[in-house]
Amino acid sequence: MVCGCSALLPLPNPRPTISTSCWIPRQPMPVAWAFVQKTSAKIPLETVKLWADTFGGDLYNTLTKYSGSLLLQKKYKDVESSLKIEEVDGLELVRKFSEDMENMLRRKVEAVQNLVEAAEEADLNHEFNESLVFDYYNSVLINERDEKGNFVELGAEFLLESNAHFSNLPVNTSISSVQLPTNVYNKDPDILNGVYMSEALNAVFVENFQRDPTLTWQYFGSATGFFRIYPGIKWTPDENGVITFDCRNRGWYIQAATSPKDIVILVDVSGSMKGLRMTIAKHTITTILDTLGENDFVNIIAYNDYVHYIEPCFKGILVQADRDNREHFKLLVEELMVKGVGVVDQALREAFQILKQFQEAKQGSLCNQAVMLISDGAVEDYEPVFEKYNWPDCKVRVFTYLIGREVSFADRMKWIACNNKGYYTQISTLADTQENVMEYLHVLSRPMVINHDHDIIWTEAYMDSKLLSSQAQSLMLLTTVAMPVFSKKNETRSHGILLGVVGSDVALRELMKLAPRYKLGVHGYAFLNTNNGYILSHPDLRPLYREGKKLKPKPNYNSVDLSEVEWEDQAESLRTAMINRETGTLSMDVKVPMDKGKRVLFLTNDYFFTDISDTPFSLGVVLSRGHGEYILLGNTSVEEGLHDLLHPDLALASDWIYCITDIDPDHRKLSQLEAVIRFLTREDADLECECCHLCDCFVTPPHQGEEDLLWGEAEQVVDMAFLGTRAGLLRSSLFVGSEKVSDRKFLTPEDEASVFTLDSFPLWYRQASEHPAGSFVFNLRWAEGPESTGEPTVVTASTAVAVTVDKKTAIAAAVGVQMKLEFLQRKFWAATRQVGQVGNSPCFPGCRPSDLDCFVIDNNGFILISKRSHEVPLGIVVNGRSASKVWGSLRTHHSLRLIFRVTMYDYQAMCKPSSHHHSAAQPLVSPISAFLTATRWLLQELVLFLLEWSVWGSWYDRGAEAHKQKKQDQLQPCDTEYPVFVYQPAIREANGIIECGPCQKVFVVQQIPNSNLLLLVTDPTCDCSIFPPVLQEATEVKYILQSSGMCARMRSQKLRRRPDSCHAFHPEENAQDCGGASDTSASLPLLLLPLCVWGLLPHLLR
């Protein structure tokens, strides 16, 4: 060995003889050479190999004995003649899944169409009655009693029963109930007439549900603000007693009510807009932004003496109104300051130029275009702007919002709107904003209403807030199919009156069950994306994040792009093909994270894709190369399969579909296993089942070695054995009492990573499938919960069982055991002592801290066994803790290729925002002046707070939400990168020397046979702490706004497919219905509250 060598030295075969005796120097040598010679002699290479072989052999014998892997392999061999392996046709599979999904979604569309017809017919036959008196089931008031025990008004008795089909919520499937937001009077004549008219929908709701029992929520959202929902449900106010839900704010309502649109918002920031006017203007902009969706495009321009874009990066363009951009705009709006004089004509010219350029370049929505003018008045000559850019065709609508109570400029603002096919409103208080902003949607809906075009829309994925606290994340994601409801009365035809929108929810989880995992293989999966390239459903979509003890939806959970999940597709070939509704296939080498990002698999995936007809969605199916291309099929009799299905140790994947149980109400309460048994015993002739798992049941009887093993012996070795098959069958056998199982969550729904789920196979199955059959994969497990010590106590070991038929190999199953980490450690130290005794040398070095440091690590560098667990050797991660600081010598040494680093990316991460500091250069002021300034500011803030609370906050909770968003410690969406470390499996044994400052550390690595484990032996005398720590934790990817990086990224317009329909204008439209002075909607006490506040100011100053 050469002095100072720093390269990895793979050991040749046959290996040269290296002495294992004590080192005795025979002549003086240079210090460094002597040191190397000395240390190298202290690590006997042959002995290390003996340790590894002995430990590996003992482990293999134990694991095969308790897992029954060899017996199971033999069982498959015995029935080989009845087995066949078929190659999976990915294109045929994706077409079949798409067809099934199309049929399911078509049934939802038919239900919505029935509601539209019923609602429009009911309105046609209803005459408005100003003095109508009518009682209905108010969702908030039902079952409520007064102090005398009587039901309150609109709160009659309403029977509610828990229903599993509706997430176990108490509902009434016989009738609907009506919800209203707090700021809508529940006995307003418009409300009473609308509720009375829509009673006709109750019978249709019930008929739809009887015809298609897979339907979930059905509803009608009225343009007047009430929301009729079936089945009937009790609505609970928030902690402040407020109902903030307004159906007209929901994405399904807005998308169904209008066609896609390009919007330029112009906001006056001149000096006259100070104070409450600016507060109202900001809230107006925020409300407009909330009415936009991913098919819309927007920009915001502030003007006074000059024009400036509130986001300079967006100068001269429109950007997609996705969640990220909307939230970005909202933050910038809050920073707007007033000064100077408002000159509106420059701002109007800029807005018209942007819209014209985008229209000519075939960019943006290519449908409606509008300018939103928000100001307290317009004084200069603006008519020439309209003459040049918009008249006579008026292709751009102009909506004007007069801010404040001043009416001097009302005529001018109305003139602008009425002469540009827009609408004028005056917003005097924060409480007026919502209703007045919604008027523009009614104007944009007129052409569609007049033409009676009932476009069917499907929303992006969104979260049902009712299920957030009780269901897993995959249960909460929904899409909605919705259609507009119009007035068909001839006398109102030119006005184009929108009555509302009807819709029905589709749980994406139920949709994805139509692509069963047992047809896709261990690493296969299916996913859906929208016409905008956003993920609708994907196993790697993570819509929730944890903040403290609470799970919360990420702000951008429904605008995660396909390229951010399938990020290996750098050319975006897959994304482009799917957005263009193509049917085809492509292949990609991918890195797949596992075990919460601690591990990685290297796979070659084949992607198959097609569109889902009559929807904006495309479906993708992924099959991994190798065993993922084949499926194992058996020929087993019903009697044989049924016999083993009845065994208590057996379970089927609860989220996989073997039998159709959601059509017949009598089947809904059946588990999939119960349904299969009823089908096989012919108890129910109406059940439809696909019993692909019968062969697995027959071949994998209760644990094969169980009867031969004594519990007393097993208790010192393993807790349980387990088995899983491709068909989703899971068996387990306990070798200890259930109370003595080290990890009781394992193989239970609480531990999703260890069981078959809708999205993935168990982690132990996935790991085993990527190692040679018969080779065991070890994995550390940590107990979770308040009683956890934070240290791993349990190890699982699993191996794949492969079957070969006609030269085709498929993974049939994976088996394994759960054992205490302590047993593994005892086994290793016993093996080293056994080899040491054979050596019979007085100075034979052992795995003692005084002689050598020995570590058993897995193929990702996690330590399973060590005498120095508190000290971290050679850059190996201790116990898999992602935040552990480790020595970087082995990993940072560039010439070594023993364990290599893989950089992974997460485009759905949440990070703490960077601190933003304004200039600290403040003028010097006297203490009195500073005190008066601070006092004045506090009083102004208090007045504004009370004013906003009085006329807005008690009805609307966005003020509180905005306040929370400003907290510096709140997490925000970000991109991160993190390292994963992987051992080179081709290197079975190696040694080397690492320079550690004044000394050199010698190490030897030896693979442990039939496992993913390595034995690492190092010299304990050399301190390598000079190397920087290696952290296996994510770091945020920083983008510099001023550079081309971040700005270009924000401006980029990814490929998208526009909706098929557009309704921008209609010749019969009544453009003179363009608004007027708005009456305030706030109550008198609320409006007088600010005056009271001003009267209290002298007292507040004392």
Automatic annotation (TrEMBL):
Residues 262-444 form the VWFA domain. GO terms for cellular component: voltage-gated calcium channel complex. Keywords: Calcium, Calcium channel, Calcium transport, Disulfide bond, Glycoprotein, Ion channel, Ion transport, Membrane, Metal-binding, Signal, Transmembrane, Transmembrane helix, Transport, Voltage-gated channel. One of its GO terms (molecular function) is metal ion binding. The keyword Metal-binding applies. PROSITE patterns: VWFA. It is found in: Membrane. It is a single-pass type I membrane protein. It comes from the Eukaryota. Belongs to the calcium channel subunit alpha-2/delta family. This is Calcium voltage-gated channel auxiliary subunit alpha2delta 4. It comes from Rhinopithecus bieti (Black snub-nosed monkey).
